[in-house]
Amino acid sequence: MKLETLEKGYCYHIYNRGINSCNVFSNDKNKLYFLSLLKRYLTSVVTVFAYCLMDNHFHLVVRIDDKSLASQSFSNLFNAYAKAYNKEQNRTGSLFEKHFKRVQLKDDKYLKNLIIYVHLNPLHHLNQDYTQFQFSSYRSFLSDKATQLARNEVIEMFDNIENFVYCHSSKQEILTEIYTLE
């Protein structure tokens, strides 16, 4: 399988899961460490629009700002995290599936829907309130605290913070209806 090249100026859905669907995060400390590595390795080469860390997988929505360093920076992040996790968990071998997945986003509508999808992951996978989920970027958009996220740019995509919240809640209603039909 040929991997899509990360191109400068384009947005991507970056995601991966544990090998054999195993957990890649065993506790909150692991998730905080992953986020610290994300800040260390990626904030100078990508713009982060959204993220969500689940126990056995993660999602990132990013725009590539420096093509020459992007792939290596992602590799450094995932390798550093896997080494630390393996050491902590007294395990060896691969932690993530072979290559991280990357899907180039074709337009702004797809980007907005993907941001919502990523934020709704706790509802979809855990039946948890996505507005309170600690390891998603959703709450950062509602906060005044400093962040590495492209908060202003994302809020502008949704026109304003009220519409950002509304778009998420309306998609939640659709998901809830689907769950009750299953």
UniProtKB/TrEMBL annotation:
Question: What Pfam families does this protein map onto?
Answer: Y1_Tnp
Q: What taxonomic ancestry is recorded? A: Bacteria, Pseudomonadati, Bacteroidota, Flavobacteriia, Flavobacteriales
Annotated protein name in UniProt: Transposase
- Transposase IS200-like domain: which residues? 7-121
Q: Which organism is it from?
A: Paenimyroides aestuarii
